[in-house]
Known about the structure:
CATH architecture of the largest domain: 3-Layer(aba) Sandwich
Structural class: alpha/beta
Strand content: 25-35%
CATH class of the largest domain: Alpha Beta
Number of helices: 9
Amino acid sequence: MKAVRVPKLKAEEVRRFAERIGAKDKDRYVVCRGDYVEIPIYDGFEKYFEGYEIVEQENPVFAPKSDLFELLKNKIPKELWDYIPRRYKIVGDVILIKIPKELEEYKKLIGETLLRIHRRCKSVWRDLGKEGMMRKPKVELIAGEGSETIHRENRCLFKLDVTKVMFSVGNQGERMRVVKLVGEDEIVVDMFAGIGYFTIPIAVHTKARRIYAIEINPDSYHYLLENVEINNVENVIPILGDSMHVTPEGVADRVIMGHINCHEFLPKAIKALKGDGYVHYHETVPEVILERPIERVKRACELLGREVKIEGFRKVKNYSPGVVHVVVDAYIH
């Protein structure tokens, strides 16, 4: 098994080069031996490292396998391999994973294996879905301990308890997309703020004058307050209550409707605008009726005597087979 032997001062440069051309052997660690570093490479790439010594490693240090399927397939019957999860999400130092009922008796093994792969994580929770309009998580502890964590994303901190509130790692791109749209001195109304999914990035990364963050779930509101504090932002006005009743009218330049089942709230969002402004409306919709979110926005504007221009319509992510999470960017005047 070959490796490139380089002086320590050149090690980082050569390692990056080896990775860039696909030469670095991912199954072995880079090791330091005295004043030199051995960077493991695949056979056949020796010619790309002229000027450096190529050595045959006598005692290679192998990286532990990090693929969940590979680690589990020898411990779970072959007829169940198709049920082994290939995906899971890490929120802070907590792992969330969906495990089908066919693997019920192996859930503890799966959890313990994940903790061996991700040594910085403290617990693994089985994701059993969400309940109700507040989307309260249904979870089960299968390994480790602890449910409260701090998730770091784009220089923002999100404190939460995975047994009480949800956090969608897959919405990160949408959160930062909206951040780039918010102009200086804007007033924003976040109608379904949760723990601050949109509110905190806007407060941290923009010069918005004020952000009204409305949340009905007391658990989410508790963490919204904590996240305002730990991110050291001062332009957020948290409001505990039902957006149908507490959304301020005539104040906003931009309204965010981040809940995926909120079309009944569209009139409230439009009334929150102080004049011309934007509404970002989210919905989950079957692909066969993909235009439904746009039609709902247009209908709500028509009923209120407002004009609307649809400036954007995009998929945020897949939600379930045949169903997508989309967002409509509507300019209302």
